Amino acid sequence: MKKFLKYGLIAFVFCLSSFVSVDEVISAIKSGSASQLSKFFDNTIEITLTDKSNTYSKSQAELVLKDFFDNNIVKGFELVHKGDNPNAQFLIGTLNTKNGEYRTTIYMKQKGDKQLLQELRFEK
Q1: At 75, which CATH number?
Q2: Total number of domains constituting the chain
Q3: What is the pLDDT of residue 50?
């Protein structure tokens, strides 16, 4: 019984920490902060923008997103759908900017005790 409680508590804390990082990612997108968002990048991350798509290192990805957010001042973000797999999560939302709306797709994968961003898409 003690083992069951111990493993149940570990699983609960593990799941709770996953949701916290998802909320923090959404908060970083809402604020248009590439530096806040970069805290959740994996070693490499695929970023798709309207005119380009590539896989970047953490530091390169932060610069690409900083440029994107500088040119597209964020007015808000609305979460449309959220899905879970055993070791991954994805979010779909609408990013409202001064230049229009972007359909936003966020894919995160569990690595160790963290959810890390694997892919970001901003499509007009």
Answers
A1: 3.10.450.50
A2: 1
A3: 87
Give residue 73's domain range. 2-123
Residue 1: per-residue pLDDT: 57
Chain Cα centroid distance, residue 90: 8
Q: Secondary structure of the chain in the HEC alphabet?
A: CHHHHHHHHHHHHHHHHHHHHHHHHHHHHHHCCHHHHHCCEEEEEEEEECCEEEEEEHHHHHHHHHHHHHHCCEEEEEEEEEEEECCEEEEEEEEEECCEEEEEEEEEEEECCEEEEEEEEEEC
The sheet carrying 41-49 orders its strands as 52-57, 41-49, 114-123, 100-111, 88-97, 74-85
Identity of residue 115: Q
Q: How do residues 29-49 score in pLDDT, each as one tens digit?
A: 999 999 999 999 999 999 999
CA atoms within 13 A on the CB side of 54: 10
